[in-house]
Amino acid sequence: MNIRRACLVTLTVSSLLAGAVAGAAAQDGATPVEPLPERVLFVGNSHTARNGGLEWQIENFVSAEDPVRAFEGEAMTHGGVTLAYHWQNGARDRIRTGDFDAVVLQGYLTGAETRTAEPFLEHARLLHEEVRGSGAKTVFFMTWPRGFDDWSDMTDVIEAHRTLEAELGVPVAPAAYAFQLAKAERPELELMSEDHVHASWDGAYLAAATVYATLFDHSPEGLPYSLGIEPDDAAFLQRIAWQALREWREGAALAAAG
Length: 258
Fold this sequence. Notes:
It is a single chain. By secondary structure, the protein is an alpha/beta fold. It has one domain (2-13, 34-249): Rossmann fold (3-Layer(aba) Sandwich), CATH 3.40.50. The chain is built from ten helices and six strands. Strands 1-3-2-4-5-6 form a six-stranded mixed sheet, sandwiched between helices. Strand 5, helix 7 (154-168) and strand 6 form a beta-alpha-beta unit.
């Protein structure tokens, strides 16, 4: 298992003032503003680990904010594994002891023997209970089915994540939906790598922008971080990430495309 950390710790006068304002609001009986997650654990497989790592990309999005704020990301990943693997190999202990504000869970619907999403759903529920017990919040990073040798299709992926969203009351970062929106508008943009499994750099940027939008409930539009891709492409993908999240929350139906 790979364990990586990306750390940006910046405490500004603005953040101190924001904390004071939130405290005053609580004392006055106003609804306090929920603080944004600062310590985040990313649990998944190569979709989380590749292209620099999701925790590194989210750090770069956060560091592009003005003013910047505190953020520390850590990842537990291993190639090709499911959430069942993480349940059995250290994720529970790390969630309990890591003092995280949020945990981003990413798996995929193997279920090769059963040809159902049940193994994914079972361990997503179990890990969510660990996250909730630790006082953190859960976010599910919805990736896409493999382009070959996969029993499941996009409909299965959607249904599984809609089930978790409704049952557990947790947010889903709909990266797979964002991919569909981007391809519908700009079919020439290559979002998948040549292996038909993993994202290209453009695709990884879109996925990270969607996770950023979901994790912080904030649009990435206008942030100067571009991962080295063309600025116009980065701006387009930022817009699509926010659009995908808004439409997903409104109950958008995704096409059953691979």
